[in-house]
Amino acid sequence: MPSTLASIAELNCPLPYPAENAVLLGHGSGGKLSAELLNDVFLPALSNPALARLDDQAVVNVNQQRIAFTTDSFVVKPLFFPGGNIGSLAVHGTINDLAVGGATPLFLSAAFIVEEGYPIEDLRRIVLSMHEAAAAAGVQVVTGDTKVVERGKGDGVFITTTGIGIMPEGVEMCSDRARPGDKILLSGSIGDHGIAILAKREGIEFESAVESDSAALHTLTAAIVSCGSGVRCMRDPTRGGLSSALNEIATRSGVSMEIDERAIPVCEEVSGACELLGLDPLYVANEGKLIAIVEAESADKVLEAMRKHPLGAQAVVIGTVNSGSPSLVTMRTTLGTTRIVDMLSGDQLPRIC
Amino acid sequence: MPSTLASIAELNCPLPYPAENAVLLGHGSGGKLSAELLNDVFLPALSNPALARLDDQAVVNVNQQRIAFTTDSFVVKPLFFPGGNIGSLAVHGTINDLAVGGATPLFLSAAFIVEEGYPIEDLRRIVLSMHEAAAAAGVQVVTGDTKVVERGKGDGVFITTTGIGIMPEGVEMCSDRARPGDKILLSGSIGDHGIAILAKREGIEFESAVESDSAALHTLTAAIVSCGSGVRCMRDPTRGGLSSALNEIATRSGVSMEIDERAIPVCEEVSGACELLGLDPLYVANEGKLIAIVEAESADKVLEAMRKHPLGAQAVVIGTVNSGSPSLVTMRTTLGTTRIVDMLSGDQLPRIC
User: Using one digit for the tens of pLDDT, what is the confidence trace for A36-91?
Assistant: First the structure.
C-alpha cells in the first residue's frame, strides 16, 4: 500500500520537462486535462459535425443507413485482473460505447500492439477472452492487425477495438439533450472496476474480493431505449468516473445537476478501500454501469425496465437536472451539506482501461 | 550505417527468453512469423467467415448494405520522415486497406496511445497531418480516443486508425480469386517507403533524397475497379513488401506466380541503398503502391487506366499467374536465372509502419 500512496503523492511532484508543453498522464484520465487536449489539439484540427458531437460514438450516414462508429485503445495495467482481462475489457468497452448511444453493436475490429518478448500463451488467453466476450454479446471480431515493438517501447499488450453498430429508426441520443426536470438514473454500484485494478496492481487484499464490473451493456440499453423517446441520453462512466460523465452532459446541455450521495450505491469493500486510499468513488472508473438521463414522466418506466435486467437490478434515481448555473454539478452529502462535484483534474488512477 | 548492419545482424543473436514461447519482432513483420501468429493464436480463437477471408479488410452486411471495415495500428519509427509522418501514414494506410478491397472509403476513427512527456506541439503537427491527408482524400475522422502511458511504457505516439467504406454493387475482390493465365500488375516503383524510413532512422544520406511513397490509393483503385469484372483482386504491398503480398495471394488462390525482375521498377537510390545494406527491395515496405491481379484479356485496359492516374503513371505488368506448384512464387532474374521468392522470414526492417 505505501507504493500506492506514494504514486498518488507523486502527481504533485515537479516533472522532468515543462509540463505545459508535454502530454501528462492526466491527459489520458478522461477528466479536465483530457477535455483540454481534445479542445486544444484534436477538435481544431479534425473538426467536423460528427466529431463535434463529443459523444462516445459517432453516428454517420452510409447510404441512408445510420451507422454508429466508435474506437477505444486499452492500456489497462495489469493485463489480467479480478473479473476480466484486457481482452474482455476491450470488447465490453467498445460494445458499451456503441450501446449507450442507443445503437445495436454488430462488428468489432481489434488491433494489437505487442511488446517483444510477451508470452504467446498469455496472448492466446487474451484473444480467447475477447472471443468469449464477443460471442456472449452476439458480436463478431471480423478484422484485426498486430504490430510488435521492441522491449521497453511498449508494455505487454495494448489493444484498440473499434465497433460498428446500427442505430434503430427514430432513436436519437446526444449528451446535449438533458433538460431541467429530467431524472438521473444509475444502473448499479460505482467504483468496482477501478478498485479491482488498483487492488491487483498494488497487492491490496480485501475480506471479500472486489471484482471488476466489466460487462456488455447493450441488452440493458436496448431495454432502456424500448421505453421510448423520454430517454434523453446514456453514458457509461468509465475513466473519470460518475463525476466526469455527469459534468460532460451538464456542460453539453447547458444545465445544472443535483445528485444525492445517499442514493448512490457503493459496495462496502469499495467504500472502505476509497476511504483508506483517499480516493473519491465518484471519480473511480466503472466498466459495466451506465447513467441515463430521462424525462421525469418516463423515469418510473425506465427504472422498472432497468431493474428487470440482471445488470440493472440495483438501478436507482440519483438526482435531477436543474436550470441553475449551466454545467454545475452539485451533490447533497450524507451530512446534509451541498458540495460541488467537479470533473477529475489530474489522474487519480492511471491506466485503468 | 554500422548500427543498421549491427541491428540486422542482431536478429540472429540469442534472445533473453525462450523464442518459441514469446512474441518476436518478426511476428509484426507481415511475413512468415506474422502468418504463424495469425494461424496459431488469432484465427482459432476468433474464427468467423469475415475474418477467415484474410484480406486487408472485412466485408460485413449491415441491413443489406455491404460495408468494408479495416483496422491498422501504426508504430512507425521515427514518427516524422521524408514524405510524411505517422499521422498521414495512418490515414493513407487505412484508406488503402479499404481501397484495395474495391471499397469507397468514407469514415475513419483514430485512437492515440501517447507516451507521457511527448511534446504537445508535435502531437498537434501529427493530428494536423491526419486532417490534411483525410481532407485531401475526401474522408472524415469522425471519432477517436486518447490514452497516455508512463514514460518508458510506449514510444512517443502509436496511432490505430479504423476505416469504414462502402462496397459498390457487383464488386467482388478476394485474394482467393487469382487464376492461371492472369496478369500481375504493379502501379509503380517499390521500396521507397522502407528505405526512406531506414535512411532517416540511421542517418544515411543519399545524393537525392528518398521520400516515402505514402499516398491514398482509393481514386486509383476506383479507376481500376471501373474496368470491370476482369479485376480479380488488389493488394497494397506494405509490411513484408511485394514478395509477401504475392505469396499471400498465391497461397490463398492455390496458384503459382512468375514475375520478371527486369519489369519491376526500383528507383536508383533505393536500389543502391538496398545493395549497400544487403536488403532485397522485394521485401521492403511500400505505402503508396498496389498490385492488381487481372485476367489476361483485361490487362491492357487496366494498365491504361492505371497509367492515366498520377499514382499509376509507371504501372507495368510484372508477371503471370500459373497453374504450377500451388503457392510457389518465382522470379526470372536479370541474369536469366530463376529463383524462388519466399515470404519474408524474421523482420528485415522493424516498425516500418
Answer: 999 999 999 888 888 877 788 899 999 889 999 999 999 999 999 999 999 999 99
Confidence band, pLDDT 50/70/90 cuts, at residue A114:
very high
Q: Cα(A298)–Cα(A285) distance, rounded to whole angstroms?
A: 28
- A336 to chain B, closest Cα gap in Å: 37
**B 147-186 near A (Cβ less than 8 A):** 147-150, 152-155, 158, 160, 162, 164, 166
Per-residue buried b or exposed e for B145-163, using 16+ beta carbons within 10 Å of the residue's own CB: bbbbbeeebbbbbbbbbbb
Q: How far apart are CA A272 and CA A193, in angstroms?
A: 15
CB within 8 Å of A225: residues ≥ 6 apart: A102, A168, A171, A231
Residue A301, class by beta-carbon neighbours within 10 Å (0-12 exposed, 13-18 middle, 19+ buried)? Answer: middle
B9 pLDDT above the threshold of 70: no
The closest CB to that of B141, out of A46, A121, A140, belongs to A46
Measure the CA–CA gap between B125 and A44, rounded to whole angstroms.
12
Beta bridge partners of B128: none
Cβ distance B69 to A114 less than 8 Å, yes or no, reads: no
Q: How many CB pairs under 8 A join A and B?
A: 279
pLDDT digits (tens, 9 = 90+) for B292-348: 999 999 999 999 999 999 999 999 999 999 998 999 999 999 999 999 999 887 766
Nearest 10 degrees: Cα torsion A312, A316, A317, A318: -110
C-alpha closest to that of B101 among B145, B165, B52, B160 = B165
- Record: contact A148-B16, CB cut-off 8 A: no
Alpha carbons A153 and A116: distance in angstroms, whole number: 9
Cell 505469396: give the residue. Answer: B247
A198 versus B47: the higher-pLDDT residue is A198
C-alpha cell at B211: 521520400
Query: Closest approach of chain B CAs to the CA of A289, in angstroms?
Result: 20
Q: Choose, out of B73, B167, B175, B352, the residue to mutate when testing the contact with A (most A CBs < 10 Å).
A: B73
Per-residue CA distances from B287 to B215, B267, B284 (Å): 7, 15, 10
Instruction: State how far the Cα of B238 lies from the Cα of B240, in Å rounded to an integer.
Output: 6
Query: Distance, in angstroms, between B228 CA and closest chain A CA?
Result: 23
Q: Which of residues 72-111 of B touch A (CB under 8 A)?
A: 72-75, 106-107, 109-111
Report the greatest alpha carbon distance in chain B. Answer: 57
Determine whether the interchain pair A162/B57 forms a contact, defined as Cβ–Cβ distance below 8 Å. Answer: no
- Give Cα A57 distance to the centre of its chain: 12
